[in-house]
Amino acid sequence: MPSTRFQGTERYVATDDLKMAVNAAVTLSRPLLIKGEPGTGKTQLAEEIAGALHRPLYEWHIKSTTKAQQGLYEYDAVSRLRDSQLGESRVHDIGNYIVKGRLWEAFMSEVQPVLLIDEIDKADIEFPNDLLRELDRMEFYVYETRELVKARHRPIIVITSNNEKELPDAFLRRCFFHYIRFPEAETMTQIVDVHFPGLKRELLKEALDAFYRLRDVPGLKKKPSTSELLDWIKLLLAEDIPAEALRAADGKTAIPPLYGALLKNEQDVHLFEQLVFMNRRTAR
Amino acid sequence: MLVRFFLMLRAAGVPVSLTEFLALLEALKARVGTLSVEDFYVLGRTVLVKDERHYDRYDRVFGAHFKGLEQAFAALGEASVPAEWLRRMAELTLSAEERAKVESLGGFEQLMEALQRRLREQQGRHEGGSKWIGTAGRSPFGAYGYNPEGVRIGQDGSRNRSAVKVWDRREFRNLDDSVELGTRNIKLALRRLRRFAREGAAEELDLGGTIDATARNAGWLDLKLVPERHNAIKVLLFLDVGGSMDDHVRVCEELFTAARTEFKHLEYYYFHNFVYESVWRDNRRRHAERIPTPEVIRTYGPDYRLVFVGDATMGPYEIVQPGGSIEHWNEESGATWVGRLQRAYPKHAWLNPEPEDRWDYVPSIGVARQLLDGRMFPLTLAGIDRAMRALNAR
To answer: What number does CATH give the domain B183-192+233-392?
Structure first.
């Protein structure tokens, strides 16, 4: 029996309250709903849980056109019809035309799996309601073959949401919930350490300073997040930019180099440049 | 003890149900965490709270329950101070001599009592004046004021937060919103306007067509595909910004977010107070980039449904008089322009965030309602519902 306690991994820094949330969800086998700013590692969490607890991972990525039924199974009536025209013998067994979805696959797993339902808010507003029974009882009925599919082991379900749509109450009641906060400088240092071991202290400090300064700019449409910070540091390393270049003379008048990696929105870049320009003028 | 905690959470407006409470007991029984207060705090939050907007309320209840501060909690619940004011903690800043002056009001105790009474009396946000709680006034309560015995509410100030417990930090304060209209509800109301049509690439099996074609084909299968159904409704949204609309920003934002995800063809423009010869798209550059209203009419066909969102609260002359606009000289009156838009878009409605029972007291709303021939609806769920019906009629 593999360990059932999640403690974070060497590649993923989990805060104490996140660990607690994961362990509660694993112990009581309830789905765990994760929300938070984009780029705080919501999706990665499932991969890390699977890795740390040595469980297989099933990923179900949700798009705006995804229907709940597709996670269970799909009945490919068209190929059956076509096969019947060609007189194939497999046409007599309807089971040949049932295509399993991610949820079914996870239910059939030999050991307790981790199932990631990624970005559930992308789907239609009724989508979560269609999965209530499946997530609650961990079973569903296949009408075509009159078969009841039951999970061998209740999967550890991680659901992520970016808050584009509100989720229905009945759905929320069945989940545990955790909101990943944007990491503080201390946690952020740990995260960067994990990704770039041996990074010069000096550069890291300057980069983080510049990063948090940028996040504090009022009115940004999209604040840079952890994943953008990591990309940016990667770029800084690749370009071999010295720490001094990041150090702003008086904190506000310098544009950090390669800031295109941090600001993803034309209007934000514009706003930022304007602010810097104004600060320079007043500083003079 | 936990039952009381559970009931207090409900009283504070955190939507917890029995299911969640039982799950918490189950988790405690399964020894998920150690028996420390911090662990219990996190565990309880994970299990009981399902929305980060409620984190702040949870923190407050937790702090109150586990510190024996039930009194303060009850007071908060009763007066229900708007979350906006609590964003910065109410704090008392009194010097020794100011404290002496407080005695003139009957002492600190009485001051706090008076604050509670007034909180209960006052309904909205307030600026200036000498009684209500707000900003820049002379009442003893509020921010940036002149009364030396004042209680400061919601004013910036440095606070020492180094030694506070997690729940006392209340870091989720600005995630709390107690707006009744959630976007989800608005979306469901907007759904009334859905009208499906088949457009785009063929990707769905047309069963009827296939049977028909196969039969004609003497039994050999001939698959027919049709495009998937889409919501084909096109909406043109005109939003009032600035001035008296500032009070309604939240609800308008919600409506806008909901509409954005619900309609594929949504075009929006802004105006101030009333529609004249030009509107704009980017509120930050409203003076530089104006779009002539006739151009909007030319660009979008009459199949668009036109929805105005505005409180229509202004001087009536701003609607009926040429040159009545408070911002610029308009050659033709607002009424003329709205008339043109109405003729261009026979399916139109006006959503008004002002409560319906107040409409009769504002003359300009009366004028606007007459212009719109009764197609003005309050910006509430029921109102949106009625507006959507009106837009669908004919």
So the answer is: 3.40.50
